[in-house]
Amino acid sequence: MCCGFCGRWGAMNWLTEFYNQNSTIINFIGLNAILGLSLYITLSAGLLSLANAGFMGIGAYTGALLTIHQHWPLWGSLLAGGLMAALLALPLGLPVLRLRGVFLAIATIGFGEVVRLFFINWSFAGGALGIVGVPQETRWWHIYLVLLALLFFFWRLRRSRMGYALEAIRQDEPAARTMGINTTFYKVLTFVLGAFIAGVAGVLQAHLRFIVDPGDYGFARAVDILVYAVVGGMNIFIGPLLGAGLITVLPEVLRHMKSWGIQPGPDRQLINGVVLLLVILFLPRGIVSLFDWRPGRRPRWPLFRRAETRASRT
Amino acid sequence: MLLELEDIGRSFGGVHAVDGASFAVSQGHVHGLIGPNGAGKTTAINLISGLLRPQRGEIRLDGQRLDRLPAYRIAELGVRRTFQSIRLFPGMTALQNVTVGQHVRRQASLFEKLVFSRRSASEERLLQADAEELLDRTGIGGRGDERASNLAYGDQRRLEIARALASNPRLLLLDEPAAGMNQSEALGLGELVRRLAAGGLTILLVEHNVRLVMAVCDRITVLDFGKVIANGTPAEISADPAVIAAYLGLEPTAGSE
Amino acid sequence: MAEQQIVNGLFLGSIYALFAVGYTLVFGILDILNLAHQAVFMIGAFVALELVLYEHWNIFPALVAAMLAGGALGVLLYYVAFKPLRRRPDTYFSGLISSLAMATIFEAIALRVWGARTSRFPLNTFPDRSYQIGNASVTLLQIVILVVSLLLMLGLQLMVRRSRLGKGMRAVAENERAARILGVDVERVIIVSFLISSALGAAAGVLYGLSFNSVSPDMGRSVELKGLSIIVLGGMGSIPGAVLGGFLLGITEVASVAQLGSSKRDAIAFIVLFVILLIRPRGLLGRATVREV
Q1: What are the residues whose beta carbons fall under 8 Å from the beta carbon of C259, sequence distance 6 or more?
Q2: pLDDT digits over B113-129, tens only?
Q3: Nearest to A38, CA basis, from A173, A208, A152, A154
Q4: Given an 8 Å threshold on Cβ–Cβ distance, is A277 in contact with C105?
Q5: Predicted structure pTM score
Q6: Minimum-distance CB partner of B90 among A174, A181, A305
Q7: How close A159 comes to chain B (CA, Å)?
Q8: I want to staple A176 with a disulfide (CB 3.0 to 4.6 A). Which of A45, A168, B203, C87 is the partner?
Q9: Is the CB of residue A270 less than 8 Å away from at least one CB of chain C?
């Protein structure tokens, strides 16, 4: 019994040590997974929206300002940040969601940039320097609690009325409409939900990083989020989780491998680009498609038919 | 009269796809809609189901106007359709396709799903059982777990019908369901259609297979260049000179194998 | 004052237009957005810079060399990032992603090779002369940039309208399958389109680098998004539209900087983008269907 106790104590020690050494990575994996999921929900309705980086920024600023100036607790700021992003998603989403695939992507890219420029010019929020001195209140378990809640939500969504409806919209929207599915409602809903999730991620990140930097929420961030979803797999909710994990961890792993003389200094951007290219060329349904466990079937997830149902039908 | 079309017009550019068409479908009937290629039959289906909006005229379901409603609202009122080129959800299994078709019957909200409510679980069990029974009824029972795109052509057509039936509709619009079928397959389909009508379903059947239409329909409307040129029983239609003229040069078995 | 703004706007607009033309050319042919276009823009500038700075070339042959390099990169882009994806059902999306990946890779390589700092063309690259036209003063550089851009765009338009290859390009843009059936060598058309598009993009990069006298690995970023706004404004797939849109954006940008201050400068492009997408998504001269059924 004593050995058991010592063994458990040793394990605890090891875990705490591991966390202390790698806390940044652990936190960022969680954060990036949440961001990936914010994109995933809009993709699951067939919408390529790249606005979530902008919503992340809106959440970050809202949360940070509330915490600093109004001394709100973290959970309050989290909710407020998410809600603010969701609120702004509504007037943006309604007109823009009618646009065809690539135009929607462009419009949402534009939105993200507008948000970034707005914050750069808003002197109350620090202008180009952003907000400094955000209390570092985020703990790893905040992030992972939110992530867990999201995973639970997506798991239950799959076999729900809304889940079936979203899949139908994604695969053939006009046909879905003829089955009584109010596609406009669902598309706007996923857009707003995605914004909420991204906003919450923004608040978490702001209280992790001590600063809110407007440059963090532009096109580059939108691309990062897209990479998590694409690399991981866009057809099932654990995809973005895997993608975020892999992309976040890869530079670190390669940095350690440097001591073995393998890579001359990992470049996060180069890695992202190469991984993204390899995935889209050879593993288009993402890393997740390597793990198809359905018995007796070739590893294939539902075909990604977005372009066929939109671009080629017009 | 369950379905009434009154002076419906719809054009694309300069082409009058449907030009002042009027006809009515009685409750419980199988009503055929035939005509040469380009006569406007599929456009009519698109107009009724709401994927297109008529530029003039009225469409009424049981007295209620359909022509200004969005497609999903029309579906909620009990109208279902199949597509000329089969539009199943390719990435889903047969059973999943039917499951989506049950959308309007699914009452349990997402919230209930999240809290594992008993109602949502039992409702889902019921709907799944119904879906499987539906596959049996349309003759593709046992293939529920196959990918929709992997099914044989005839089975895909049946699946589309099963999916349309999944919500217990009042009015079923079938757009060339027998296209590409040989005569025996088409007859099997015809039997299915008559069985459905006997159960109280009203069916509007667009078809090129004139022999099938004659055998299965209670009444037939004939379109040509977007206008109604004849309306009546199969016997009346087959003797109508205007109809014969419109089909001049075509075999009476046009469209079938 | 207004005349000076128009002059500045025209000259800036000509660079934007040249960049946007390459963008819209590929979109018109393949219905895909080539997000690596901005990387070719940037690399073109660096190639010219290297030749002028270290090999002491004259700027004009350097420009030509940059265009050749750009063209080669464009063909590489096609073979690596677009051709393998042609048969996919979701080809527009995967093309977007793969070109994004290539852009990231190109930019990362540029960062390794040239570092993140801003480089400049040597001072004697261009004689520093200016002229008076009415109330506005114009530098020789501005005139040359305007002329070069216009010549290149005119050349492209002539080729598209008059040459057999141009006919092929228009056919493929209209309906690829029909073009193939009619005997057009679709593959060749596509390769040439990428070549021309990227050569023009590289040229735009050189001219941009010259005019602002700054070349850096991230110079493509802001221009890329403005390029998107331009082709949406002009109508995606329309070359005259891209030219028109480029000039319009250039003038609008310069005018707004004068009225509203330079911090809002980049926002103009996006405001324009938004407004256009909401009220007339097919742009000024475009034909593509943009709305959902």
Answers
A1: none
A2: 888 888 888 999 999 99
A3: A154
A4: yes
A5: 0.86
A6: A305
A7: 9
A8: A168
A9: yes
